[in-house]
Design goal:
The protein is α+β, with helices and mostly antiparallel strands. The longest helix is centred in the N-terminal third of the chain and has 14 residues. It is globular, with a radius of gyration of 22 Å. A six-stranded antiparallel β-sheet has the order 1-19-16-21-14-13. Strands 2-3-10-5-8-12 form a six-stranded antiparallel β-sheet. The structure holds 1-hydroxynaphthalene-2-carboxylic acid. The site of 1-hydroxynaphthalene-2-carboxylic acid has 14 residues, from strand 3, strand 4, strand 9 and strand 10. 1-hydroxynaphthalene-2-carboxylic acid (1HN) binds next to strand 3, strand 4, strand 9 and strand 10.
Amino acid sequence: MAATTAPIDGADFRHALDQASVSPLWDVMAALVTETPKPRAVPHVWPFAALKPQLLEAGRRITAEQAERRVLILENPGTAGDHTVTDALYAGLQLVLPGETAPVHRHTQSALRFVLESEGAWTSVDGEPVNMAPFDLVLTPSWRWHEHGGAVAPTIWLDGLDIPIVQRFSAGFAEREGNVPANEHAISGRTRAAYGANLKPTNMQAAETDTPLFHFPYAVWSESLAQYAQKTPVDPHRGWTLEFTNPRDGGAIMRTISAFVTMVPPGMKTKARRQSAGAVFAGVSGAGMLHVGGEALGIGPRDVGAVPSWAALEIENTGEAPLVLFSYSDRACHEKLGFWKESLSQ
Ligand code: 1HN
């Protein structure tokens, strides 16, 4: 082996490197290239009961119009101040009060809304309105105009966005009201009629690759999940899990974000599963625990939990009724970019 001729830690050398705007890889190589993911985010659950009063207080202090979006961001305790819920995803709880409209805008960030409490609210996407009933999933994919309104009681939903991903690429663009084009196709129910029954128009534009279907009603997905569970043996690592899909290609609902629903029967604790994607869970019904890398975090209806990349997750139903959870993750990115991995315990 060749011998070195000068000390590795010479202060003059370090200073010269600094002056030249370079740094030695050998200092950081082990931290940059790890055997398995080392997320900065930590496992955490935000109980809905703790957040709702804070949101209602925000409602007394700022209007939806003033705020543009009245949202409390879920700051992962491992990355507080970064506005991230996992290393690559954003989550927030949004409040819309009766009579308010969250003004129309569009941006490159893709968003999903998972409705927690709602009466009468709607979201429109490129002018087409859909209802936001409790536990409905509504998408506002990248660069589609969207606004929210119609609430007749305080309405709260979970916002899930790919903000940290767009930020890392420095690819954030946005437009606010002023130049919203009229959309002659913006007729309530049109998209559901065109795409909602495993049918699609034959004259669709090939270039329109984003998901056309942007409303997945609770009444529909919960019935599918319940029927699927009745007719299928439960998966030891996943319970009964179904993915929401893009009807154009059967893939993830948006280019960057995947979304799922999971049912775990009473008495079951799933076997540990790791996945490279960071995930966010929201409780729908039943009572349970997310066991994440040795921590036990209780989760019930409307509570939101963060499960970082590669954390071993076991989902336990601690109640008498089925435990139903919604989740979203950055798996869509991992698959497209070729770094998706999962590991199932014996
Ligand atoms: C956004 O457009 C909404 O449309 C909610 O409701 C939260 C957070 C960051 C950037 C855009 C919405 C958002 C957002």
